[in-house]
């Protein structure tokens, strides 16, 4: 068994609004990198870290502090060079200095709406997630928490999983620079006169 030096370890976070394709991309990326894959939703369930259910927001409540501690213990016990963490609050579950890179997946609100409708989400939950995508919430969280230098945005609109994984791998190997500010859903929808259709409260 190879024991990896912890300094060589790369913790890669894949984040983005629910429905952008984090899990599909993270699973394929983990295979490609022979990385350990951690789905935060599964992780919190398996480790009993769900504290309740928020009826209004239709989402489970977790204590991010506790998740952070358990995840760190779990990661320390792993013997893997690459670790891929999949979750829309992923940046809050690892100490920023331990994060190697954050990939923020972006998907055009029209495509995202289709995914969320197919999941059977309520109108309210769809509206909340669309607003979050339009207002760059995950991107801002990633930059605030980990700093611009570690953050890469990838527009997955109309792209298949393989294509997205290829871009990520190229970035990790230094063949493609990270980009930030590549999408402007707010401006785009506004220019098309379609903002009201997507940004509703
Ligand atoms: N790059 C992609 N192109 C097309 N469909 C995708 C892509 N990535 C994911 N999907 C599909 O979109 C849906 C949401 O993906 P999922 O990985 O569950 O999103 P998330 O984990 O961000 O909530 C799934 O039905 C998945 O098969
Ligand atoms: Mg997922």
Q: Can you give keywords for this protein?
A:
201 residues, alpha/beta, Rossmann fold, 5-stranded parallel sheet, two-stranded antiparallel ribbon, 7 strands, binds adenosine-5'-diphosphate, binds magnesium ion
Describe the secondary structure blueprint for this structure.
Elements: E1 10-15, H1 22-33, E2 36-39, H2 40-46, E3 50-54, E4 59-62, H3 64-76, E5 82-86, E6 99-106, H4 109-118, H5 123-134, H6 137-146, E7 151-155, H7 161-172, H8 185-191, H9 195-198
Parallel strand pairs: 1-5, 1-6, 2-5, 6-7
Antiparallel strand pairs: 3-4
The structure holds adenosine-5'-diphosphate and magnesium ion.
Q: Would you write up a description of this structure?
A:
- The protein has 201 residues and is of the alpha/beta class.
- The chain has one domain: 3-Layer(aba) Sandwich (Rossmann fold).
- The protein is built from nine helices and seven strands; from the N terminus they run E-H-E-H-E-E-H-E-E-H-H-H-E-H-H-H.
- It has helices spanning 22-33, 40-46, 64-76, 109-118, 123-134, 137-146, 161-172, 185-191, 195-198, and strands at 10-15, 36-39, 50-54, 59-62, 82-86, 99-106, 151-155.
- Strands 2-5-1-6-7 form a five-stranded parallel beta sheet, with helices on both faces. Strands 3-4 form a two-stranded antiparallel sheet.
- Helix 1 (22-33) crosses helix 7 (161-172) and helix 4 (109-118) runs antiparallel to helix 5 (123-134).
- The longest helix is centred in the middle third of the chain and has 13 residues, at 64-76.
- It is globular and about 55 Å long.
- The model has no long low-confidence stretch (mean pLDDT 95).
- The structure holds adenosine-5'-diphosphate and magnesium ion.
């Amino acid at each position: 068994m190879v024991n990896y030096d912890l300094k060589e370890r790369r913790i890669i976070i894949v984040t983005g609004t629910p429905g952008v394709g984090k899990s599909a991309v993270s699973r394929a990326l983990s295979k490609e990198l022979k990385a350990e894959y951690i789905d935060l939703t599964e992780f919190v369930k398996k480790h009993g870290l769900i504290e309740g259910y928020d009826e209004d927001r239709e989402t489970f409540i977790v204590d991010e502090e506790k998740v952070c501690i358990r995840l760190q213990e779990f990661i320390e016990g792993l013997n893997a060079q690459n670790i891929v963490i999949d979750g829309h609050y992923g940046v809050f579950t690892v100490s920023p200095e331990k994060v190697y890179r954050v990939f923020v997946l972006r998907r055009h609100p029209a495509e995202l709406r289709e995914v969320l409708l197919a999941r059977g989400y309520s109108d309210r939950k769809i509206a909340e997630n669309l607003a979050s995508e339009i207002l760059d919430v995950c991107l801002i969280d990633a930059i605030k928490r980990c700093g611009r230098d570690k953050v890469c945005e990838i527009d997955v609109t109309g792209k298949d999983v393989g294509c997205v994984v290829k871009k990520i791998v190229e970035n990790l190997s230094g063949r493609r620079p990270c980009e930030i500010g590549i999408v402007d859903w707010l401006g785009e929808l506004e220019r098309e006169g379609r903002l009201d259709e997507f940004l509703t409260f």
